Amino acid sequence: MPVSLLPFEKPVAELEAKLDELRRFSEAQDIDVSAEIQQMEAKIAEMRRRIYAELTPWQIVQVARHPQRPYTRDYLQLWKCDFVELHGDRLYADDAAIVGGLARLNDHPVVIIGTQKGRDTKSNVECNFGCAFPEGYRKALRLMRLADKFGLPIITLIDTPGAYPGVQSEERHIAEAIAVNLREMFRFRVPIVVCVTGEGGSGGALGIGVGDRVIILQYAYYSVISPEGCAAILWKDRTYADRAAQALKLTAPDLLRAGLVDEVIPEPEGGAHRDPAQMADRLKEAILRHLRELEKQTEAERVALRYAKFRRLGVYHEKTEGPASQNMASVRPSS
Fold it and tell me: pLDDT per residue over 92-139, tens digit each?
């Protein structure tokens, strides 16, 4: 299937069209133009590398939302991890926006839970465009409790614009479902590795986002609100989404500098959708590496360090003018 092009990739698309034309000409006329083809391929690769090295935050958001970007089920298939899916929250229904079950990563038994988007209209409607209902978070919680009971590490894959904000979610208490997940994830004794693979939207991401390690793909983002939502609030106009993306500091390097994530996983040239298999290998290697490190800790150490990790988030410094306060004072969230 041809890769869908993003607006800023137009120059690359024009060169690729010329390359295809040159190949067709070579075949039709039986003329050897392999040197010219190699030269053009190198030019295309260099142009793509340069474009992706200079992406703006808004362009990174577009890459994170690419319709061919690998989702949870894609990673499960590429990992060949003997995945056994478990359904339902045992309270209301089974939410297709969150996938979860037992798996084996390189003979390492784990529980994997992730958000799921669709590839077309039908599959997007089935999984509600990756926006989970309360029963999705309650299903995730059921599986995490199962993992904790049997001593299985938990891996979560996040790619969601956010939890579903409609009337049905409010009727079934979406805020309570996410809040309970946050509380319980701090208590689990098993290692938890959280991976932001695409969009990390607000509470919808946090509902399965508390972990000992939080890693993020190079062109994913993690934010308290979408750029469009932020623009609608601050400028009363969603067309200012590019300015909002810049202000939100939502890119992987920004998050790493702020201490909100622990590692940025490099993506293949042109994004994860260009080479899903390579991206899956890189992500699996990172997950297993973090799991090996976490398993060296005792259960008490893990729980204490996880709590301390999230208590540090949001710490900032104030500096007032004048000789009376030359030192910077740390301001931390209240207990």
Answer: 999 999 999 999 999 899 999 999 999 989 999 999 999 999 999 999
DSSP 168-211: HHHHTTHHHHHHHHHHHHTT--S-EEEEEEEEEEHHHHHTT---
C-alpha 47/C-alpha 39 separation (Å) is 12
Exposed/middle/buried for 151, CB within 10 Å: 0-12, 13-18, 19+? Answer: exposed
The tokens describing 187, both together, are: 């208590």
* Residue 236 is assigned to a structural domain of this protein: yes
Q: Note the pLDDT of residue 335.
A: 45
Domain that holds residue 48: 7-20+32-54
Residue 148 lies in a domain: yes
Cα–Cα distance measured from residue 64 to residue 61, given in angstroms and rounded to the nearest whole number: 5
Angle ∠(48,52,56) on CA atoms, nearest 5:
140
**Is 47 part of any domain?**
yes
Q: Is the pLDDT of residue 328 over 50?
A: no
For the chain, the domain total comes to: 2
Burial class (CB in 10 A: 0-12, 13-18, 19+), 154: buried
Q: With respect to residue 137, please indicate whether it lies within any of the assigned structural domains.
A: yes
**Is residue 164 within 8 Å of 130, Cβ to Cβ?**
no
